[in-house]
């Protein structure tokens, strides 16, 4: 558990963040003037064809918002892309889940992506939560504070974009991370996950960190957890949602570090 003095230091660091006031003012303004506006903008953007704390923080600050970044490959944006487009399913049909997991991990070891194998039971919970809570925010540690990253869920995919970039570019804001879940091997008791990220915005550790936070919030159906409370507040009571609660929660949990 983080001490109150440590938490005060976090807030102090955030206040020194050159982008902190921009975030705070914009979000606070949305909450004061139109609590539903942010969610409505996100929901409307979904109808268009677009879209772990780093152990050693790098020196990058925040994602550039002056110009839209180049999107990841257009093929990656197809809704619920098929596993067969990246992986030869026929070669693993006679394998068990443990063998497939090993093959999947080995297949991605030298690629600039994140990957995992998820038990069907857990993914069933995650996918239900994705439908119930289609958008959310995650704080990402940067060299001077935190950058907020927005996720939007669609089908079996999660699309991440820097919040500030979305506020500037709306539906034209490019994704910095796209996570897809492939359900073709559910009969083996597993769902394969793969995340592709924009290396101009995230490194592998940061991408994994966002994925870990996502699973922390969306991988439970216990309505009494702090994560469930924050999800519910963001979606159903945006007027009472405080983005700094996400930072406070992050400071009171430990996420597994990526080896990337």
UniProtKB/TrEMBL annotation:
GO BP field:
mitochondrial proton-transporting ATP synthase complex assembly
The record's keywords, sorted A to Z, are:
Mitochondrion, Transit peptide
Record's subcellular location: Mitochondrion
Cellular component (GO) terms are: mitochondrion
Q: Which InterPro entries match?
A: ATP11
- The segments labelled Disordered in the record are 39-62
Please tell me where this protein is predominantly located. mitochondrion
What is the superkingdom listed in this entry's lineage? Eukaryota
Instruction: Specify whether Transit peptide is a keyword of the entry.
Output: yes
Q: Which family does it belong to?
A: Belongs to the ATP11 family.
Q: What is this protein called?
A: ATP synthase mitochondrial F1 complex assembly factor 1
- Lineage, uppermost ranks: Eukaryota, Metazoa, Ecdysozoa, Arthropoda, Hexapoda
Gene of this entry: atpaf1
């Amino acid at each position: 558990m983080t001490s109150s003095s440590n938490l005060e230091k976090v807030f102090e660091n955030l206040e020194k963040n050159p982008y902190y006031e921009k975030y705070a003012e914009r979000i606070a303004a949305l909450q004061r003037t139109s609590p539903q506006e942010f969610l409505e903008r996100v929901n409307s953007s979904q109808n268009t064809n677009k879209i772990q704390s780093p152990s050693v923080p790098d020196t990058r600050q925040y994602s550039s918002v002056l110009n839209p970044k180049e999107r990841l490959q257009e093929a990656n944006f197809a809704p619920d892309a098929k596993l067969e487009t990246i992986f030869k399913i026929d070669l693993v049909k006679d394998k068990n889940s443990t063998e497939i997991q090993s093959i999947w991990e080995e297949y991605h070891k030298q690629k600039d992506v994140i990957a995992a194998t998820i038990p069907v039971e857990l993914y069933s919970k995650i996918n239900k939560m994705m439908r119930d809570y289609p958008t959310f925010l995650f704080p990402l540690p940067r060299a001077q504070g935190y950058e907020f990253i927005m996720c939007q869920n669609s089908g079996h995919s999660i699309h991440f974009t820097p919040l500030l970039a979305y506020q500037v570019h709306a539906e034209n804001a490019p994704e910095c991370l796209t996570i897809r879940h492939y359900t073709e091997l559910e009969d083996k008791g597993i769902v394969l996950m793969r995340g592709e990220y924009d290396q101009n915005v995230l490194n592998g550790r940061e991408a994994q960190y966002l994925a870990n936070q996502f699973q922390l919030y969306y991988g439970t159906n216990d309505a009494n957890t702090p994560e469930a409370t924050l999800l519910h507040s963001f979606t159903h009571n945006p007027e009472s949602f405080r983005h700094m609660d996400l930072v406070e929660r992050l400071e009171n949990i430990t996420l597994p570090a990526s080896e990337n």
